[in-house]
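The material for today's practical consists of a large collection of protein records. A record pairs a protein's sequence with a compact description of its fold. Instead of coordinates, the fold is spelled out as a row of discrete tokens. We will come back to this pairing of sequence and fold again and again. Here is such a record, shown just as it appears in the course material.
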Amino acid sequence: MLEATPLTDGWTLRHGEESLPAVVPGCVHTDLLASGVIPDPFLGRNETEVDWVGRRAWTYEARLPEPASGHEQTDLVFDGLDTAAEVLAGDRLLGRVRNMHRSYRFDVTGLSGPLTVRFRSAYAEAEAVRGRLGERPSAYAEPYQYIRKMACSFGWDWGPTLVTAGIWRPVRLERWSTARIARVRPLVTVEQGVGVVELRVDVERTRVEAELTLEATVGGQRTRAAVQGTDAVVRLEVPDPELWWPRGYGGQPLYDVELTLHHGSAPLDVWRRRVGFRSVELDTSSDVHGTAFTILVNGEPVFVRGVNWIPDDVFPSRITRERYRERLGQAAGAGVDLVRVWGGGIYESEDFYDACDELGLLVWQDFPFACAAYPEEQPLRGEVEAEARENVVRLMPHPSLVLWNGNNENLWGFRDWGWEERLGGDSWGEGYYLGVLPRVVAEADPTRPYTAGSPWSGSWRRHPNDPAHGTHHSWEVWNREDYAGYRRDVPRFVAEFGWQAPPAYATLRRALPGEDLAPDSPGVLHHQKAEDGNGKLRRGLKRHFAFPDGDFDRWHYLTQVNQARAVAAGIEHWRSHWPVCAGTVVWQLNDCWPVTSWSAIDGDGREKPLYHELRRLYADRLLTLQQREGGLVLAAVNQSREPWTGPLVLRRMSVEGEVLSTATLDLAADTRAVAAVRVPAELEPTGPKDFLVADAWEYPRSGEAESGGGLRALHFPVPDREVPYPSPAFTVSLVPGGIEVRAHTLVRDLLLQADRLDARARVDRGLVTLLPGERVTIGITGWETPDADTARRALYCQEPAR
């Protein structure tokens, strides 16, 4: 039977004449940090102090154990090497590698003694390839497109430049005899109510004459097949399987598949995975609105409530199974049903996809190409095809994986960013996205759809980022416009859009120890990587609020509010146009270090107000007031499995709290549908002193309303800076598990920043608006010394213009 032994102990990292302890899996930066050689690059401006690390060659050393008897072959298996390296056993060169996204297997039968992995600087490797193949344009000055490595380790507009090297995934010895299972491609389908698992198996042999059989089980079904040469096909059928669904549509039953390779009665090797029975299609048909981009699971069209995912740490070897589960659990808790693994990162570990399988999170997987023209010549072309084949097959068992995407923004970049002229006919990646990658997916895994890029309109006959066709990225709004610009059009699928805000206060305090915080203080600016990022934050604020010059705490609060407002403007508009618009994927869920960015969860794992706003925006049911041609419209978005009926209460109110007029309308939204009703003209707000409230329940007349007791939509017709808000008056009291806030005036955008109470504290809600007489309970965890006065000082809300 094949024996696998981890080879993780005893590694050292050579640093000059010194050998430092090395953790495998790990990387050079984390080993140097653990030994006190470098400062924490996440703190202050230390990132610049460790730039030298990525520009040096590094050597890892260990020992191969003495050969074990009883097996014919011993393989040394690396699940991931980052990135350009040569592997030696003693003086014998086992091989050279140049791809972070692949695994490697070397025959070390009979070998023992010194084991060495010599890493070349990723810069040196990339610049050598650039020298051979010529210059290609990109969004950043770093040479990431010349090496098959996590692009964002070279820095991004939200990430530090920390160019890693190391044995970043597990390494082991595998000892075996006669034969082993080399590769399994599980094609999982549902055919006329029957679950089918077709296992296409490749076998490696030491003895070609040995008669081999395969035995497979799934869902109580068992079958055997003979191996002819080095391959075989094993097919199992499961009657009436329970279907796997995305969260909110059904359950996530998973079936254990076990495949055993036998020589006679002796088992030689076992392959085990979990699968889910479901079908997935991508509707890209033409209609009167353009070209659709709608994901269907088990025949059910899904409005995608998505987030973009970046590597959760710039040092990916530090991301544990528990951390994946925490972060993805946060996504599910926000109502997310799809996570897009963005193309400047990595193919994530099995732990990521396992969690998505269990949580019912659909996965859109980019191939790792982002924001650059990529050469198509050797040595890159062969590496691209090899990594694609390996990872398509590796991820095939996961029912959560529903879409392969060729690249991020490269087709768009070729057309709009001046690349075509600069390239002068040189290769730039089109052959990958429209040739190699769709061919690999079709050959290896025909059960899943492929799209050439994001954004992509489906054809060069149209602009790549045409909102009427396929996927669309909406970045003009953040870069140049007010977020009202999101309402200008109805894209078929919004795969990227977002708005920045700083991380939580406690995160900034940890990352910038001792700094006098200000929007333009040195550390804050260093942890803002976007071009003119603070300028865009400032301009975005000034469109809506009086800018709080000299008041960092107020700036911090208002930028958080503006981020939530901006994202809400887009999602509410686009969801109200389902099924023409079939999804929104917010940029971005997470961060890889403490930074001002577009994330909903900051680099320390703290949830921004945007996170809590997503819980409202991505709930099955959403009320939204939309200004459309002819007047104000109330849209009831119902993505639940039940019809949504009942009264809608509308009130035009003054900012002083007086009810100026009311109306009750009937709500009737079908399952997975949107119902829209025109707001009566007499209820539309007429100026800065009044606003509209819509509630999906009969408003209690006692004045003791609990905010959140139903669904609510608000419409203020002018920017906040023009609203004559009253001085907010409210009382705060302690209740079990949190605090209660009771409003005596209109209190808009009330926010408790729990990390100002205690760095470990968390709250169960974000921004909330209270009408006079209403109250809200805010749950708090991790607060060791509750005190009402302290809580009041951590509460922020809109105030009268100064």
Summary: The two ends are 77 Å apart (CA to CA). Residues 698-705 have pLDDT under 50 and may be disordered. The first strand starts at residue 3 and ends at 6.
